[in-house]
Design a protein that fits this description.
Blueprint (H helix, E strand, L loop, with lengths): L1 H19 L3 E6 L2 E5 L7 H14 L2 H20 L8 H6 L2 H8 L2 H15 L2 E2 L4 E2 L13 E3 L6 H11 L2 H18 L9 E4 L6 E5 L11 H18 L2 H15 L24 H15 L9 H19 L29 H16 L9
Antiparallel strand pairs: 1-2, 3-4, 5-6, 6-7
Helix pairs in contact: 1-13, 2-3, 2-13, 5-6, 6-7, 7-8, 7-9, 9-10, 9-11, 11-12, 11-13
Keywords: Hydrolase
GO molecular function: hydrolase activity
Family: Belongs to the glycosyl hydrolase 88 family.
């Protein structure tokens, strides 16, 4: 099953290289990807897809396209184009860091360390957190963290390993600890965002930007938490991160609907028009694959997690993948970007495509993503 799905991905990605040229896919409307010149937070996912396709197939057409994206990311960093956010890890882990992991290219390594410095600049020492969006002092976002940042922290952990500079790891750990304390609720659900006083770091309130309501559990946010805490455990071996990833994963899997692919928010009213988010199931599948590598064979949660992984991936492949749609640009149908905002609420999203492929190639060949050196 996995091999057939990957072959479909390879065919679509070859076609997309010609379709997209030097532009980057973001989200689609009516099945056609919106393209940009590398100025969105999502652009690393296209680069990551190309690198995964190259690793799996060895076809140089994927490597050539991937290298062009890395050069684009070099130009983006040099021109500081729309980097005033925390998603630097999404951008550079899957582009230049991927090149370093695969080829041990020194220039790619140095570019990735420079990107880690850009992320580090978002550290707010007064509040003791990495600010998610906007400039320092921003009246709306100056005190905001969001759960997505857990997937950006691996860039800092990796930079510590490469340089030996403790500041990268120290800041990543402080932020991960704060995320665990304030974004994860007692019932193992999660807030999307949390606000602090920028002057003293005093906790203010939880909230959401993408979810159904402030107190609800946005499924993609829960997915970021599952994978993100598993990655923090990989780097630090702090058992609290492993426990938190397991708790979030159990909450997610216990709420799978009949076809095993989640709705966009666990608390959204369910009716015929309720949107799904296939990307949340894809992220969670990739995250559980990472989580399982850290569990003992007799861990009491292993069988439940393995079953949930199989259910989720089979649900994606059988009912949401665009297999049999040769002209489709995306790999998964029914992803949602912003249901609340009405922006691509039910279409292809490039991060869903990436995590779907990452999970597939890990299942089929043991090829991991680009969140840490192998």
């Amino acid at each position: 099953m996995w091999k057939k799905a990957i072959e479909d991905v390879l065919d679509k990605t070859r076609a997309n290289i010609n379709r997209f040229g030097d532009l980057f896919p973001h989200v689609s409307n009516n099945g056609k990807y919106e393209l940009n010149a590398n100025d969105e937070w999502t652009d690393g996912f296209w680069s990551g897809i190309l690198w995964l396709c190259y690793e799996y197939s060895g076809d140089p057409v994927f490597k050539e396209a991937a290298l062009r994206t890395v050069e684009s990311f070099r130009s983006r960093l040099e021109s500081n184009t729309k980097l005033d956010h925390h998603d630097i890890g999404f951008l550079y882990s899957l582009s230049s860091k991927a090149q370093w992991i695969i080829e041990r290219d020194e220039a790619a390594k140095q570019l990735t360390i420079q990107a880690a410095d850009v992320l580090l600049a978002r550290w707010r020492p007064k509040g003791q957190y990495i600010q998610a969006w906007g400039p320092e002092g921003d009246p709306e976002n100056g005190g905001r963290i969001i759960i997505d940042c857990l997937l950006n922290l691996p860039l800092l952990y990796w930079a510590y390993e490469q340089t030996g500079d403790e500041k990268y790891k120290e800041i990543a750990v402080i932020h991960a600890d704060k995320s665990r304390r304030f974004l994860v609720r007692g019932d193992d659900s999660s807030y999307h965002t949390f606000y602090f006083d920028p002057e003293d770091g005093e906790s203010l309130r939880g909230g959401t930007h993408q979810g159904y309501k402030d107190s609800s559990t946005w499924t993609r946010g829960q997915a970021w938490g599952i994978y993100g805490f598993a990655l923090s455990y990989h780097y630090t071996k702090d058992p609290l991160y492993l426990e938190t990833s397991k708790r979030l994963a159990r909450y997610f899997l216990e709420r799978l609907p009949e076809d095993d692919v989640v709705y966009w928010d666990f608390d959204a009213p369910i009716h015929a028009d309720t949107k799904r988010d296939s990307s949340a199931s894809a992220i969670t599948s990739a995250g559980i694959l990472e989580l399982l590598t850290h569990l003992e064979a007799d861990d009491p949660d292993r069988a439940f997690l393995e079953d949930g992984l199989q259910r989720s991936m089979k649900g994606l492949v059988n009912s949401y993948a665009t297999i049999g749609q040769p002209d489709a640009e995306g790999l998964l149908d029914h992803g949602s970007y912003s249901v609340r905002g009405g922006n691509a609420p039910d279409d292809h999203v490039i991060w869903g495509d990436y995590y779907y492929l990452e999970a597939l190639v890990r299942l089929e060949k043991g090829i991991k993503g680009y969140w840490y050196d192998r």
